[in-house]
Write a structure and sequence with these properties.
Elements (H helix, E strand, L loop, with lengths): L2 H29 L7 H36 L13 H26 L9 H29 L1 H12 L2 H20 L7 H19 L1 H7 L5 H32 L25
Helix pairs in contact: 1-4, 1-5, 2-3, 2-4, 3-4, 3-6, 3-7, 4-5, 4-6, 4-9, 6-7, 6-9, 7-9, 8-9
């Protein structure tokens, strides 16, 4: 393969990973039928998730796994084997616990950084979904790039397409729900606060990862053969359904929260016919 061919393949992988995420972003944005957010800030939030949140999460997870592995090796004990990143149990702990907590926190920081753009509660889940979809796009591209290096272009594209109908949507919906909770707190609405919605995002993320990793977990506990193969296909189908159901819920939340608009700092909904909504800054 020439350098030109490799470059073209790389561009194709980027496009295949990027297009579904942008389509999802447009789909989510359309849910905010009243005073929808402009594209500029949403794409900025998308890039925040794609570049800063993804890279920072990867670095932090490597550090945490390294520290845990070193600690488990320095002080070996059966009850702490889950800290060893070189073990199967350590890998499962990373996927089900470390990654959801770290990644949802860093994606949530993107929602916080765009808080001044909020003009209604609906803006919270819209920006949350934007950050999450950006994260999902770049993470999916990196996974596809790894598959491309090992198995070629077809393998890379296949993995990207599978993740585009599952984990990309999960990242958008989990951070969208965090954004909803944060916006509710920012607009002084009663009920669960930002912390509760952060834990909800973590739970969504961890539950999805559980489905995606079910075959590995089954092998770890001693199941083998046809049962593992069948369970892995069922779990993949369930993960895709979960991801689409979650993003549909976020879209429903956006549509409901967007009518009527809420003035920033007010604890009451603006009544219909109570004057024009506050203008958006450019």
């Amino acid at each position: 393969m020439t350098a030109t061919d490799a470059g073209l393949d790389l561009v194709l992988l980027v496009v295949v990973a990027l297009l579904p995420a942008l389509v999802y972003l447009a789909w989510v944005r359309r849910s905010e039928g009243f005073q929808a957010e402009s594209w500029g800030p949403l794409l900025g939030a998308f890039l925040y998730g794609a570049l800063f949140a993804t890279i920072a999460a990867g670095i932090l997870e490597v550090i945490l796994v390294g520290v845990g592995t070193a600690a488990s090796q320095a002080y070996p004990a059966p009850e702490f084997v889950f800290l060893n990143g070189n073990s199967t149990l350590g890998g499962i702990f990373l996927v089900l616990v470390i990654a959801p907590f770290v990644e949802e926190a860093l994606k949530g920081s993107g929602v916080y950084s765009y808080r001044d753009r909020f003009r209604s509660i609906a803006d919270g889940p819209v920006f949350g979904a934007s950050v999450g979809l950006g994260f999902g796009f770049f993470e999916t591209f990196l996974y596809g790039l790894g598959a491309f290096v090992v198995g070629g272009l077809v393998a890379g594209i296949a993995l990207i397409l599978i993740r585009s109908v599952s984990s990309v949507l999960l990242h958008g919906s989990s951070t969208g729900m965090f954004g909803y909770g944060y916006a509710r707190s920012r607009f002084h609405q009663p009920g669960p606060g930002t912390g509760s919605y952060y834990l909800l995002a973590v739970a969504m993320h961890s539950g999805f990862n559980l489905l995606a990793s079910l075959s590995v977990i089954l092998v770890f506990v001693g199941v083998s053969g046809f049962a593992v193969t069948s369970a892995s296909y069922i779990a993949l189908f369930a993960a895709v359904l979960f991801a689409f159901a979650a993003i549909e819920h976020v879209r429903a939340v956006i549509a409901t929260a967007g009518f009527p608009a809420i003035q920033l700092g007010s604890s009451r909904y603006r009544p219909r016919g109570g004057g024009p909504p506050p203008p958006r800054s450019p």
